[in-house]
Amino acid sequence: MNGPTREELQTHAVSMFVHDLVVVALNRLLHPPDSRFVNDALHDAVRALRHAAGVGVELPLQLQFSDDRIHYEGQPLDGPSLQARSLLRCCAEREIAAISFAADLGVDELNRCFDLLLLSHNRDALSRDQRDVVLRAFGIRNVRILLRSAADPSDRRTGVDDTRRALHQYQDLAECLQQNHVLAHRDMELAVTATADVVERTVNQFEEPSLLLSLATQDDVDRFTVGHSVRVALLALQVARALGANREQLVHVGAAALMHDIGKSKVPQEVLFKQGRLSAEEWHWMAQHPRLGAQLLLEQHQTVDPHAIGAAFCHHMGPTGLGYPQPVLPIVPSGISRLVRVCDVFEALTSVRPYKRALTPVEAYAVMFRNQQDFDPAWLGRFVRTLGLFPTGTRVRLDCGSEGVVMAQTDCPERPEVRLLHGPDGADLPAGHPESLAIGVPFEGRVPRIAGVSTHDRAIDVPEFDPQEPEVLTQTAQHACLSTQLARDAAPRPAK
Amino acid sequence: MAAGGRQQKGANDGFREAVAQWRLNLRTEVKKSSSLPSAMFDACDPMLETRLAESAEAMLACLQEPDDHLRDPGDSAEKRLEHVSPAELRQLPTQVAAIAVVPLDLRTGLLAEYLGILTDTACVANGPAQHGAVQLLQRDFGLDRGADIAGLAELLTQQVQDSLAHCADASEATAEQLTVACQRLAAALALHPPFEPPAESTP
Known about the structure:
The complex is a heterodimer of chains A (about 500) and B (about 200). Chain A has 19 helices and eleven strands. Chain A has about 500 residues and is of the alpha+beta class. Chain A folds into three domains: about 5-150, no CATH class; about 165-385, Orthogonal Bundle (Hypothetical protein af1432); about 395-490, no CATH class. In chain A, helix 1 packs antiparallel against helix 2 (about 35-55) and helix 9 (about 210-215) packs antiparallel against helix 10. Chain A is globular and about 75 Å long. Chain B is flat, with a radius of gyration of 34 Å. Chain B is mostly helical and about 200 residues long. Among the domains of chain B are: about 15-70; about 110-190, no CATH class. Chains A and B meet through helix 2, helix 11, helix 14, helix 15 and helix 16 of A and helix 6, helix 7, helix 8 and helix 10 of B.
């Protein structure tokens, strides 16, 4: 595959800067403005701005703010916007249309800028008649703030299509969880009812959570493990829905999965985001988070249901209760806890962490099957069958060289339907060529096969799968796989 | 800082002089802000003032300079990547197909899990979490606080065994473990202060 173009590098650099701004805003929710965490995030943001300038982004760098997204040069930056609800709301309250950042922006100056943007008592400080005076008084010279014009309603939420609805729902889930982490960190009562409400809205609005999940893959803001927990919840909801769970059960599953890592709000951030190997003491802290999470939920007394308590306590336990924490009585995890465990590990493997790169889904499955004893096989199998070996949204390369995106799953987890993006070597698809293909089903004398998978920063080859023994196949899978196997046998083979 | 005439000296002299002046000012500030009377500095330890100034200087330097890991992300940004062999990928469909499709219930084992966590929290935690766990043990499992710890432990053991009996994987839970844990739980329950329900708020 070709390296990134200059424009792609620039867009990525801007995206990283916006990501760092969002992280500053999230850290300011949790910590005092002069804390080390805020300071680190500010340094990262300033460094990212300079990096952007270094790859040719023109400064001052102007970002536009609508009610639900941050934009650069008119293009929405969905990834960093997913956890930016608080920042976006503050900007909307202040009628901010755009903010420009100049080259000499410093850490302290940026922090003062966030004072104006985030603190409620500064809500009116940026009004049109006093904005310039206030900026001068705050010593802000390298940030320019443009306010919305009354005649320009383009920034408002207009027209809610499916994608926008999904974005709002994802932001709601993320914000709800952010608030819970902040409340837990401050030893305040959790917003348990609000959490159940937001999950219920998700369940009601999205029969098929794949749109939300595809958004989730763009969420790379790693703070409070919010993105991780939202993705785990969406994965768990997808599997539970495929099982035929009713609405009430779905809300239980979603809320339990969403809150499963709430105990991490009690783990020091130095440990939580440490890049290197954890020391014994640090590991002790980390290993306590399931128990701390359950205890946090139990402190809510009447309002928390046993599903959430169980998922928080047991999501690092294998099917027989091995793992951590070690309870005073042997505990055998419930069905929901087993499902959350599978989703949790899959999500952790397929996402970027400070200390590791992301695996593709098919690699993640291989790692999970390598450690199969850690999972309830029935739940692992159900998970793979629901999502498929190549989950919907995965970018794939076919053996003919064409590239496409997985659109839907079939009864055979390794044979999804693929929408083609282009032909071999990036060529356009010939006129009349179908836009989608079923993997394993003969087309024009060939049986298309997935030969590679790529993420935003990695591409791997996928070898031809081993032929399966018919007797080990389940009835449904056997039927689907055998029919395509027969078709494959009947298809003409290319000459060697 | 360096006056024009001083530029005749070595290139670093002006800088050194400024640093020396700064150190002197710092010592003065340390002395001023210390609760020790001035005379104490010399009386107790003639180096005290210097050491305090050096400590303050070191702390200021730490604040000025970002941590190493912040300074150069490039060196430490090499991230781990789990290795997966082609052979492992090849086997995947076979491994998935080998798992029988069985009916699954999200609520399986929920009660036993819940009881186990409440027990753990009642024994291990303290404060509001322990209070909440005890309260839920009483509410959801009918475990009244009894005067007789042994009798309560026996009752708890029986309830836990009944709950675990529904789980196929529960054979590892030995009777001895159960008894010890239930005795601890009974003690925690018996010693726990009586639960006072919050007063109903009147409209």
